[in-house]
Fold these 3 entries.
Entry 1:
Amino acid sequence: MDFKSENFVKMFTDMMSEGFIVIDKEGKIQVYNRKAKEIFGISNISQIKHQSGRLRAGDIVIIGDNSIGQDDGNLTGQSLKVIGIKNTNIEEGDSIIAIGTYKRAGDFEPILKLLKKGHNEEVLEVETTIKGVYIKAKIEFVNKIISIQVDNKEYKMTYINAIGHMVVLDGKTMEMKFYQTYGYTARGESINDLLKGREYMAKGAGTESLDVIGKDIFEIHKSDYMIQQFYNVARGENVTYVDKFEEINGYPTMCTLLPVEENGKRIGAALKVEDISQIKKIIAERDQAIRELEEAEYKLLNEKALNKAFPKFIGNSQQIENVKRMALRASKTNSNILILGESGTGKSILAKAIHENSKYRDKPFVHVNCGAIPETLLESELFGYEKGAFTGARSEGKKGLFELADGGTIFLDEIGEIPLSLQVKLLEAIQEKSFYRVGGTERITVNIRIISATNKNLEKEMQRGRFREDLYYRINVFPIWIPPLRERRQDIISLVDFLLPKICNELGCHTKRISAEAMNLLLTYDWPGNIRELENVLERAVNLAEGNNILSKHINIAGRASQDSSREIKDLKSYLEEQEKKAIAYALSYFKGDKKKVMEALNISKTTLYDKLKKYNIK
């Protein structure tokens, strides 16, 4: 097969959403699609332009390197002498910020800030002014960002393990003439290469991109384990795999490696690559969003504001107050939200309340129960379909739920139930806010806020291979955990006060009261079904109670009969201790942990109360 004669290959491979590389048996690149160039940073997609050229004597060089010698073209302390840095204490793995004049004594003393390998610092920073130009270089070791600011322009690079970042200013005009960006290994533009006088390419829209076709794979990618294995398979080694995690030149990827054969003979190898480096970026975005919102917390998060914002989300425990605070913060952002909690904790109510407190409040709120829609219909329900897309489809086609939510919020309830086969398309729709209808060829773009919810442990689902890691991090930008009812028993009283009149009104009867004994049963039950189960128990009790009072005999909860029978065989002392423990626990819950009020209500001394707390292990 003659790779070069297949002119249609480039057109089709550039349409792929994954990176795709093919090499022949000599290791020469025959296919390198657009997505692969984006992943490995060798596309000219940057909007900041500069011309091609090389460093000249007198240029100002600014370097930020978190690990000398690791991903900077084998930079050493000796290499830095060309910018006036003569420190002999620089070793491999050290972190540096260096500013100097290229091959000439400049108008300022060269600047070096150094942290030895293995340090525990969070930030390394230099701030100075040279020839009237403000310069700030900073390495953030926690967020893994290296930024170089020149006046009001900032050049940032994120890294996973190590990276070398450099900006060069023209020595005469003090204008930026070069800045480092991703893909410098492929272009031969590492710090050490340029300090040795190598020419660099132009950057920015409209400039010529690097042509890799026909080049040796090792020219474009340094010889790490994955690239060597790719080459070995092209040469005849029998290795294949699908969706395996591998790092290529420091980029975390999911790889599929396949041999290419013709007439039973090996002629090359193909590598499909999915970029998962966005996971780290998403986590950093979430953390940054939370930090920024905390600064405005004192203006928004007081009890009055929370109750006004969430009138239907009942509870005054500390746990629920925290949930409301997080939800109010989340409503003021555009970040994706993941609501976690057991069934019946109120995830749907909270999602609707977040929408109603957001800028999307006057737009659609579309609730999708992912677990209730059959797997065969889920894709067409979410994304719609074109006419004739499948047997039984409407002749005019149909809009999907994503389209119906355009301008507002889509709530993906029980997202953990979505099958793996649909998770890739869902990830793209969430990430790009665009998708194709089933059977369609036109990409549809929507402007929506995405809230997801699940009662599953998605981290365990990922470990079991049932949920994609990249989808998890994309939806989990702003997580909110709703604790189960058994962990916030004091909210039961507030919930009963809210639910009982509502139930009586719906059943068309006078409002009924609940007795102390009946309330005690509710307070001591674990509520595996949470608020939904509580509401069902109260509705049943209202129907059973003939008068205006709900008694303990009207409370029908799981396990009560066995508890009653077990009481019959206990001795009097055990029975009294059990009731005493419940009375103390109830009083603590009622008075929100105020022990002084508990002592007054139960008419016991401080010593007695603390003895009982210790005896019954009440916290």
Entry 2:
Amino acid sequence: MSSHKSALKGVKEKTNNELLVDQMPNLPKPMTFWIQAAILLVVSFLIYSASIPFNYVLDDKIVITDNAYTKKGISGLKEIFTTESFTGYFGEKKELVQGNRYRPLSIATFAVEYELNNGLNPKMSHIINIFLYGLTCIILLLVLYQFIGNQNNKWYWSIPFLASFLFLVHPIHTEAVANIKGRDEIMSLMFSLLMLYGSMKYLDFGKIKWLLFSLLSYFLGLLSKENAITFLAIIPLTAYFFRKQLSPRIGKTMFWLGITTIIYLMLRFSTAGIPKFSQEISDLMNNPFLGMTPIEKMGSILYTLGKYLVLMIWPYPLSHDYYPYAIPKTSLFSIIPLISLLAYAGLIIIGIKQFKSKSIFVYSIWFYLITLSIVSNIVINVGTFMNERFIFMASLGFCLAVAHLFYSYGAKLLGKNGLVISTALFFIIAVIFGTLSFLRVPVWKDALSLNKAAVEVSGGSARANSFMSTAVFEEYKVTTDKAKQEELLDQTEYYAKKAIEIFPDYNNANLMLIGAVTERFKMNHDIQYYTENMKPIIIRRPDIPFIVEFSTYLKDKGYGEALYPFYIDVGKSLLKLNDKRKGWSIQYLQYAYEINPNNKDLVLTLSKAYELAGNTSRAKLLFDAAQQMQ
């Protein structure tokens, strides 16, 4: 710290109050820095400590609880680093999203935790997340001081501290911190900032150790999450804005960062596969733009980009779920996408026109746009419309811009007591943000609380409703009170049906509805209720394995005769369809045939089903048998 301070000298402030760094700036006194760093770490624990006793939720099962490689502990590290990131969960590589996923480093930390704790320990994982988040904010503070410096002797009133503190308390970060899986976001930004710090030190002083530090940090950032690749553009941007002249070492720096990128991409492609950008993902839950026209797709993208801006300024209400159709299908020419287009066009125009001014505000604009680009759905389909954790890295640009505006213009515009008023306003905003973050954390307690909060905000999301149905059903399974069970089954059906209204083919929603129907049947043994409620489910998704399993269970329990007309009805209904569901008609017609093989109409219908399925020999055999019937 002290050696860094001695190397950094001076800061020049222009008359227009735009901070322009002509020389390397001064750092604050070491005691001031450590006080600020301690505040950042303490506040991070104050806001997020409530999450420490929480269990695993959401995608934690993919990377931790149901991941076979993670649960091998240290012996699973080789597989974690040499396979696509979903392989440990699914047991095989699947083409679920464009480009697949390769984020082994955070998963590796979970495996190490598993080894050290001799099993799962969510409490330790939450503590590590909070600590890493606080540490990232401290690194951000150090990095910003390296560029901007300390402008006065007030420890609480400098752009680096204001920006770092605002970043720390911003509510949009709660998902990245309170959800254990969000560690990949934290680690990617942390290592990216260290890469930026090392690169600038190398540009300033030319010591190879700083270049090596930067390359290693960058590689670790990429292994955490691919968002770190955007810092390839942030390095020259930062060097241009915060140094009087570009260092002659910038070319060498970018060359070796480029080599590091190539090494990472080779590793990624050999494990996760080469991205197939032309590949059409047929699952709506992994391709929100499925079935949209180009106009609708761009409208939806602009809608989400506008929502990101709104959530930056006023982060309420928040949701972990923005799946179809929490963000509605929207034409490019609708009012919200057009306003969003104008807003981003304005930012780009300001960024271009004022580029030579080297204003911190302009730098913040470009930082925001560059780091947002990779998750915008413009470059690559990220698998959902948006997510609050996606904006984690880009939000740094917003926080820096706000800190700069308050510091550079607050006192000037507010008159005699401008500094006092500006300081008070900033910290009132920070307190509001911190309070919203604190109040948001309990949502992540468990699946029920998380999904309950999600359906209140993202009621149009099939996924949110389906997951809420699942959470309620899981509650039902551990409840013994009959009245409470009935209530929970009602809720299970309600949310499952709501999800199906949005997305009729949704596998999980239909499965939850099957669960509710079968559980009610077990309670009252009402076969008419069962058949009436199962028919629409089977027509939508006859391929769900549990349907066949429960049908076998019912036959074994002696309900075959009662289900006989139901099987014929369902079989004929499926046969009338003009898609792959038609083939499932054989399954149900065959059930009926096994109960009564002497129904001529049934046998002829089954013969037709086999013929359409291409099994002509079986079709002929059945047809001939039918001809001999009365």
Entry 3:
Amino acid sequence: MIALAIALPALSAALLLSLGRRTNIWGPYLSIAASTSAFLVGLWQFLLMTNRPTEERASITTIYEWLVVPGTNFKINFGLQLDQLSVSFVLLITFVGTLIHIYSLGYMSHDENKRRFFAYLNLFVAAMLLLVLADNYLLLYVGWEGVGLASYLLIGFWQHKPSAAVAAKKAFVANRVGDFGLSLAIMMMFIIFGSVSFIDVNASVSGSPSWVPLTIGLLLLLAACGKSAQFPLQSWLLDAMEGPTPVSALIHAATMVTAGVYLIVRSASIFNASTFAQNTVIVIGVISLLMGAVIGAAKDDIKKSLAGSTMSQIGYMVLAAGLGPIGYVFAILHLITHGFFKAVMFLGAGSVMHATNDNVDMRRFGGLSKSMIFTTITFFIGYLAIIGIPPFAGFYSKDHIIEAALSHSWAAGIAALFGAGLTAFYMTRMVVMTFFSKPRWEEKVHPHESPISMTLPMIILSIGAATIGIGLTQNNVFEHWLEPVTGFSEPHPPLPILTITYITLGVVALGVIIGISLNRKIPKVAPTKVTLFTTAARNDLYGDLLNETLLMRPGMKLSKFLTIFDRGVIDGFYSGLGLITGSISSRLRRSETGFVRSYALSIVLGTAILVLAILVVRL
């Protein structure tokens, strides 16, 4: 039954792509119906799961024998694993995905290729569902690559824009680096464990030498960094904002960028077996959450500021996942709440763009609260959720991560706490510059509220952002739900929980106050004199320069050297060999005169030489 959740959007995508422009009228509605049906299938499976005892909730459905190696016992099934972790992702992907499909009806209404856009959305949903439902790493890899393909197609959807085409290629290349790590990890599992299924790997890793979980864990982390835009593979995420805004909401806020977090949590047994791998995950999460927050605080482009925020929030999830059993549950909890409040803010940004002639510069906004009441309210709810104001969702998920981080070390906890203050600052800056400061738009701009197809999904998502946190944490229901899959250990921070909560809220309040005080008056142009730190932040902390210096230019020089080596040495050797052979042949063919007497003389001389050689040897 759960296979239908994958099959329906995949079939819809195939139909829309194969039937062409004739589906432009009804194609988007078919796409929405497929995504909605996938959600209903997931919801039905979730309800059935809740009615079963805890130990019987997980199940594996084998669709068919996928890969069989003759003469060995090795085989890989096309199998789907439905458990508490995977069904949580299924509900998030299909529910948020369906709302974004509906939003796209209004946002893409005037696009002549909207049928293709909706097909790509369905392709993405199907690939993401395959990724989280696979019962083995190789099948997960198929979904992983499918998600990467769909991301490439959607980021570069407006391919007539050079910036969009370049951004799509950049995302594709950066993700290939991470995917190389995942492919190597799968190969190691096959060689060492003789299997790539989750069950077999989990059972075998505990008895393996310490270097095995360390190496595989680091390779999986590399894969996660690529897909989840974490340091050092983060530079593609901000450029990916060149795609249509619903793409930013679906792929780069709610689902695709969380695939790396899913991979780490699904591979919990591997990371639990290597303290060094876990600590590396924590370090990457801390660096990413701080880098993303700094970048988000410096951007004037509303979508790129939100992209920096996404990098930062994913950093919180990666940090929590690196904490082991005390953090896995909180990583997924923040992933789910983030899917709601970040999606509503990305959709809100799209609504603002829709009302201001596709402008993304927050210095040209201001005062939009008067003409865009629904967008303002829903965006503001997302704002309260992400900065962690109770009772909104982020308060319950992010505070738990801060408590777990403090339980691990003061350094990780203080970094997470500082990140909360930065989050409050840059989000307050965004809200003030966009909705509550003096109007700064151009005369030709006439802000107006978006159609109901766009505002309705935003309203539903904002309700989720306001309530889902308390719903999932009431009586520790989410901890009990995920514990059979991820394990759970109660964190023991060095300070009382209530004290940590007050400190966190105090840091958040300080960030809000600074954000308001520094952004009451916004210039329409960037100041001519800025600090080196601000310049660095506006240039994405020189992530592109770092990649260019460490990877691209050395790669170009290596390629140039290999080209010269190939032409001068490899080709030279074989070309020289050919010339020598040709020269010898040209001389030998002169002996072929066609005269019988010449051949007879050659035979006589050859026989004489042979007889002489035999006599010499015998003597």
